[in-house]
Amino acid sequence: MLKNLGIDLHQSEKKTLFSFLSLYTFLCVLIICFVSFLYFTFQKNLMLQNKRQVLQAYSKDFILRLKDLHINFDKYKYYPRDEKFNSAIYDSDETLIFSTLKEKKVALKEVIYTNNTYIQFIEEPESYYLGAKYIIIEIKDEGFWLEKSKNEIMLFALISFVFLFFMGWFLLKLFLKPMRDSFTLLDNFIKDTTHELNTPLMAITSNIEMLKNYSLDEKILKKINRIEIAAKTVSNIYEDLSYITLNNNVISVNEAINITKLVQERVEYFMSLCSMKKIHIEVELEKNVFLNIDKKKISKVLDNLLSNAIKYNKPEGKIILLLKDSYFSIEDTGLGIKEEHLNLLFKRYSRFSDTVGGFGIGLNIVKLICEEYKINISVSSTLKVGTKMELEW
Amino acid sequence: MVKKMLLFFFLVIRFYASPYENNCLSCHQKLPVSIDKFFYRYLLKYSSKTRVQEQMFLYLSEPRKDKTIMPKAFISRFGIKKASSLKKEELEQALDSYWNKYKVFGKIK
């Protein structure tokens, strides 16, 4: 739904939005239920008012016949029955004297009410014939009003829900417009910036490679080496940003990639960065390990893992790379990560160290690619000892 | 001898008869209005057993013109009865017997 609106929100923002939508839906349902209940009560009371007149007439007739029985109780004792209604008589202690009711449970404090499929009417006569303080007249509730009310309520609920749904949709679009605008603006800005960065970066790196072919003074070579490292760092950031903004939505071109060869290539690429911190890399690679994957994406995974292992390693530290069939691990001797931070490690923009620069997007990209290819990634770390990242597929 | 025996049995029956029969029925039988009419007048006004017996007890303990439920013509003709000489328990027992004899519960068909 949000994609249709041109918005690609983060997980937390989606969660907030869905919470809001759930609350909105819940409130809508609550309002509809409340109004339906009021309407139902109104319809019921209207029906009872109509029936009350009929029941009052029945009770009047019944009282006359009860009076007759009271006067002649020594002669006959036949309870006044009528095919149009059932009845019962209770004394002032609410003790049943006699009853022909179908629904035995009565509410003597009420006047008129529905009792399952019956309507019961309570009358208190002026004189208590045969001790009857409460006279209950009962008739069958045909339920036409209930059927009619149900249909009306269903129709009302449906129309209201559709109306409130579209109202919610409209409000959502209205509220999300500023967010969508700012997202588009940010997206375009990153896209333009990364595009503009690409050309000068390519120029710097290719010229450095060309310069290396010349026999240069050691001091100049050292400086060129530093420029190369800086350029590679910028290039890495550039690639991460372009992956987030562009490649994230690009369809993967999967092919059988020789991971052994690729790891060697990427280690070679980061060698200059390692030599600057005097980091020693130990490599143990099984020959010809193949994986069906997009080359750019697996390169991104390896680059980010290597770059982190270098970045957060101590000077003169060690990196151990191990590649087996369906398994790859990279272990460093760096700062280590606190246990409580391990869960947040792959969250975008999560950073736990200020000693080195970064945006906190590298491991998020790693996680996204691993999820896409169902590669299981796990982290184990000991503070001030080092971190080990393991990939299994 | 037979006469003496019959007199003896009659006295025994009278002695063991309930307070209702001895103290209520014996006098009311002499009136032209049967005793059940009084019951139904009480029932008409007070409805339940509790209230009927309570009001009857109050009247029989201290009969007064303003407390009677009988019509004026009846009082003019027969007057107000004397206060009952029965003890509280005996009067309550008599009222229970009276209620059980004329109650409508279980009699309506």
Distinctive features:
A: 393 residues, alpha+beta, Heat Shock Protein 90, 5-stranded antiparallel beta sheet, disordered N terminus, B: 109 residues, mainly alpha, 6 helices, 66% helix, globular
User: Could you say which overall geometry of chain B the principal axes of the C-alpha atoms support?
Assistant: globular
Order of helices and strands of chain A: HEEEEEHHEHEEHEEHEE
Widest sheet, order of strands of chain A: 2-1-5-4-3
Kindly, what is the distance between the CA atoms of the first and last residues of chain B, rounded to a whole number of angstroms? 50 Å
Number of separate helices of chain A: 6
- Order of SSEs of chain B: HHHHHH
Helix/strand structural class of chain A: alpha+beta
- Largest interface in this structure: A-B, 20 and 17 residues
Give the CATH level 1 class of the domain at 254-392 in chain A. Alpha Beta
CATH arch. level architecture of the domain at 254-392 in chain A = 2-Layer Sandwich
Q: Quaternary arrangement of the chains shown?
A: heterodimer
Range of strand content of chain B: under 5%
How many β-strand stretches of chain B? 0
Spatial extent as radius of gyration of chain A: 41 Å
Q: Alpha-carbon distance between the termini of chain A?
A: 33 Å
The largest sheet of chain B is:
none
Low-pLDDT ranges of chain B: none
- How large a portion of the residues of chain A is in β-strands, by DSSP E? 15-25%
Low-confidence sequence ranges of chain A = 1-7
- The number of E-state strands of chain A comes to 12
Describe what you observe in this structure.
The complex is a heterodimer of chains A (about 400) and B (about 110). With about 400 residues, chain A is α+β, with helices and mostly antiparallel strands. In chain A, strand 1 and strand 2 (about 95-100) form a beta hairpin. Chain A has helices at about 10-70, 145-210, 220-245, 260-275, 295-310, 360-370, and strands spanning about 85-90, 95-100, 110-115, 120-125, 135-140, 255-260, 280-285, 290-295, 320-325, 325-330, 375-380, 385-390. Chain A has 6 helices and 12 strands. In chain A, helix 3 crosses helix 4 (about 260-275), helix 4 packs parallel to helix 5 (about 295-310) and helix 5 packs antiparallel against helix 6. Residues about 1-5 of chain A have low confidence and may be disordered. The two termini of chain A are about 35 Å apart. In chain A, the strands form 3 sheets. In chain A, strands 2-1-5-4-3 form a 5-stranded antiparallel β-sheet, with helices on one face. In chain B, helix 3 crosses helix 4 (about 50-60). Chain B is about 65% helix and about 0% strand. Chain B has one domain. Chain B has helices spanning about 1-15, 20-30, 35-45, 50-60, 70-80, 90-100. With about 110 residues, chain B is mostly helical. Chain B starts with a helix and ends in a 7-residue tail after the last helix. The chains are: A alpha+beta (about 400), B mainly alpha (about 110). The interface between A and B is medium-sized, with 20 and 17 residues.
